[in-house]
């Protein structure tokens, strides 16, 4: 842990909401410290570079080094390298509570208190990570969740935000889809938190009228 021993780190409400969104999405917590501390790892592909740097700037006081570029895959046909970007926070006790909420026996799960944790900010971050726009509806790729967890999430979204959604099967897994009728309501709920490079997640073909709304 180096010079982090004994230090206390302040995590703002907005940062907590972003961390929750990351953990619902592609982020992961690594808890390898005997003191019970943890660190958050953020890792996205080249096309999500701006998202990585936005997360880094948001969590900068918890991070010691800026994002790094690494080779994630080499095309065997033309030997072209494909890159991704990543960073991780310091290993600190303040992140332990997130680990206890999101992990069970080393597996990432839907927190039991998801209704208390989910906010428009965390939902926006989650959709920037795992969402996609498909024929006027938004899919949230929740295949890592069980069917029971997806049903809990479906009820939570209805109760908290009055958002109607459904669950459909994707091969041997399940994922959540917001109905087309909910598109405008969902967009208005989260659009102020979605960074420009990720707007395609909620606006498939951006028109001039959509830019000014």
UniProtKB/TrEMBL annotation:
Pfam families assigned: LAGLIDADG_2
InterPro entries assigned: Homing_endonucl, LAGLIDADG_dom
Top-rank lineage group of the source organism: Bacteria
Family annotation (Gene3D superfamilies): Homing endonucleases (3.10.28.10)
GO molecular-function terms, A-Z: endonuclease activity
Sequence ranges assigned to domain Homing endonuclease LAGLIDADG in this UniProt record: 16-186
Descriptive protein name: Homing endonuclease LAGLIDADG domain-containing protein
Organism: Candidatus Nealsonbacteria bacterium CG_4_9_14_0_8_um_filter_35_12
